[in-house]
Write a structure and sequence with these properties.
Largest sheet: 6 strands, mixed
Strand content: over 45%
Order of helices and strands: EEEEEEEEEE
Structural class: mainly beta
Distance between the termini: 40 Å
């Protein structure tokens, strides 16, 4: 059974930074490409950043230059460093494979005040 555990969220002021963490354990889980997703209430979940086994990464246009996704294979942990936070970044963040499997973790809440 796969477990996805996100952490690191919090309440910050605009312009601040956070580092989100995601520990993935169990199987089966496709670790070749993993992403961070976010979902605001009443909206579709969107993929904001991905990282592949070869280290290559992709970012949604709205977060380019502010978000950095990395992975630590030894710790089975994926990170999302977020800089220059904006109020519109406020939502719940999740990690999952790309494309995502049906099971999701609880996510971690990010709240940015102006």
């Amino acid at each position: 059974q796969v477990q996805l555990v996100e952490s690191g969220g919090g309440s910050v002021q605009a312009g601040g930074s956070l580092r989100l963490s995601c520990v993935i354990s169990g199987s089966p889980f496709d670790r070749n490409r993993v992403g961070w997703y976010r979902q605001a209430p009443g909206e579709e979940r969107e993929l904001v950043a991905t990282v592949s086994n070869d280290g290559s990464s992709t970012y949604e246009d709205a977060v380019k230059g502010r978000f950095t996704i990395t992975r630590d294979n030894a710790k089975n942990t994926w990170y999302l460093q977020i800089e220059r936070l904006k109020p519109e970044d406020s939502t719940v963040y999740f990690c999952n494979s790309v494309p995502p499997m049906r099971h999701w973790g609880q996510g971690t809440q990010v709240t940015v005040s102006s």
